[in-house]
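Issue: ligand-bound run for D-malate - logging full I/O for the record.

Environment: standard queue, default settings, no custom constraints.

Inputs:
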Amino acid sequence: MQPIIKAFGLCIAALALAIAPALAQSYPARTITMIVPFAAGGPSDAIARLIGESMGKTLGQQIVVENVAGAGGTTGAARAAKADPDGYTLLIHHVALAAGASLYPKLPYDTSTAFAPIGLVNTGPMVLMTKKDYPAADAAALIAKLKADGQKVTIAHAGVGSNSHLCTLLLQQALGVKFTQVAYRGTGPAMNDLMGGQVDVLCDQSTTGVPQIEGKTVKGFAVTSKDRLPVVKELPTLQEAGLKDFEFTIWHGLYAPAGTPQEIVDKVNKALQVALADKNVLARFSEVGTRPFPENERTPAAHKAQFDKEIATWKRVIGEEGLKN
Ligand code: MLT
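Outputs:
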């Protein structure tokens, strides 16, 4: 590198370091954007709006949700990765951010280093549902029908790498079949089509699945967790329904672009902690069968550890164990 260019680079870095504390002290001085990398009306959108409202009150500035949907959540993640690391752009994302590292060979960001984890938000199961008039009486009958019908079955999901897609792949693997997959920009629109009968099956997070099952707009069959979910305790687990070892639990985390000053990350984390102790947020979480991470697992460091672990897990499951479309 030319000495003059190197000196200029060092000056910029020193300036950034000098500005960071002042930036952190006055943060937040304006509206914050929280990117949801899926369509409105889906589970990520629901969780973002719920915690965003409470966090905005704590931070004294409004948090505006922006849905930047597409490519299984990677379009929104790319937008966040490129944003200024000043705390005014946050990203809520889930398992797909980690799995995407193994599913997309040409991502415009390095998943491991592009984001500053702020804190883990919620964790919960997915629910296997069908359109209202799908001809199966219970979970065991549904599994037998899905296996027999294979490609005749249309299954909706939110794009390659999304939770609903990963659940689809795990189901295909467990049953030894390939369904006809229909990709949407989020499970919000996928759920609309399930309700309208345009697709047969959807495996979606309990957050948006449970209210539709309770409202009888779709038929709920089984949950993907090891244990039954108290809000829909009549539904068996997929393990009880015959899919030995089937277990899939999702989680959301909150991120800032890498390089965001630690003081800002900590301020946002504190607001997240307040949101996750807010009785209205907790009541809604429990109504829809999801729960906050325990307090000691909500630090930026714990989130980073979980994120790194999940990147490695999906690399193994997709790469070495060959989980395939
Ligand atoms: C969504 O909000 O649409 C979901 O989180 C998508 C998914 O991962 O299935």
